[in-house]
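Working notes for the structural subgroup meeting. M.R. asked for a predicted model of this chain before we commit to crystallization trials. I am recording the input and output together here so anyone reviewing the notebook later can reproduce the run.

Input as submitted:
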Amino acid sequence: MFKKILIANRGEIAVRVVRACREMGIASVSVYSEADTDALHARLADEAVCCGPPRATESYLDIAKIVSIAKETGADAVHPGYGFLSENADFAKAVTDAGITFIGPTPEVIAAMGLKIAARERMIAAGVPVVPGGDRIEDPAEAAQAAEAMGYPVLVKASAGGGGRGMRRVDGPEELEAALERAASEAEAAFGDGAVYLEKFVDGPRHIEFQVMSDAHGHTIHLGERECSIQRRHQKLVEESPAYGMTDEVRAAMGDAAVRAAEAVGYVGAGTVEFLMDASGSWYFLEMNTRIQVEHPVTEAVTGVDLVQTQIRMAAGEKLELAQSQVALSGHAIEVRIYAEDPDKGFIPSPGPIVGWRAPEGAGIRLDTGFEGGQTVTPHYDPMIAKLIVHADTRAAAIDQLAAALDDYVIAGIRTGLPFLRRVCENAVYRKGQYDTAFIEDHMSDPLPPLDDATRDLVFAAVGKRASEEQAGATAFEVALPKTEALAVRCDGDGVTVEGRAIALDVLREDGPIVELASAGVLTLVPRKKGGYDVGLRDRMLRVKCDADG
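Returned structure, recorded in token form:
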């Protein structure tokens, strides 16, 4: 077994690997950029070494620097996590050329599965169903003929792509040439490879993936499926296991295809084979991710298998003792990704300091995070703050548990996806499991209804109480709410008046920027630099402007 592992990543996945190393008795080394000096992953590891300036290309993506740190610290293995260099064949080769074990597949396998056109050809040879299309497009005329043969709509996709980059939907021939140019340009910028291909657009698909694990002795199994259909901009937000409505027969067939896909490339380690399933139940190979996935905790919850520790053992050459017949899915697990972003403004990133933090706790609740209160989410990297995972006996119970945990989770100071995820839990279509990858566009795009009068008054009371403690004298507030009129609130130390109605202050309990309202759950109040407050409610964020009134 390894004695020391360097983790070539940051955030919650680096923390996850540090903890796995600790449980296995393996020393850990974290790398951190100058922007992450006080990051949790750097503080938890046995050793931490600065790898460069905030810019990722000069720190976390600098292959030579990361390999040099691994050698200098005496690491005998490197865990790449996900993202950054995790699927970079050149990085895997540089690690192995340095005499260090790369915890993942070989550089050749990464390269083979990273190029989508070549990967499709391998899957066809292995008998795995693929979406129609797939030939590299050399000129627009060729693309037009291929699209006409498949029938519109089609997708233009980057061969070296992932995460929705270099991907464009085309609904008619008049859109094709421009889509090809944009996709190729984006792919070149993102991956250094502008190759694109066409694929038939699967209408209303579900995104279902299978976790596979392979050892170096020719043994491969799958550990069931994950449903990953709730996405924004092709990025997953909610994942669960098992998939709703999955039958034993379909699971066996898709799982067998996933195992054949891994075996076709001589895979070793943890990997994920992703499929699209259409409304008729037909399914097709999408791609293979040659790393641990963000959503791996839901598989861990329902199988009881620690995927990161198993991944490390496979890289160390141990045999995979678990047989396919021993894999059983118990209960239902759901994971939500919590980002520093503003869902009401197209999910744009919302970096900044976390001034208040209260994490949910309890049986069946797991929180994977790289942050805590007092830290800052920087604009330099992916804005994911945490992953909240719940596990219960049934899907309905898991959704209820998730809703309760989200209600308990407070992150103050920045805008996050928490209010949006709470609304997902309440959505009838989601609860019925009758959704596909267009769920957000089809079922979550309606504007929020205005606040009811009682909740609105309590918001004003909370703001009034805070202002009365921070400022001398009476204060008036202008409050802009969705589809409501601005109202005046006055406080004089004895109480708060909202349009002539007095609100007693004894219903309020304060703890820093977090205000507990006995009849309205949790509010977060964060002073703004330009005056006023950002008010976080259960299902939305409000901005309260304050003006002194003498």
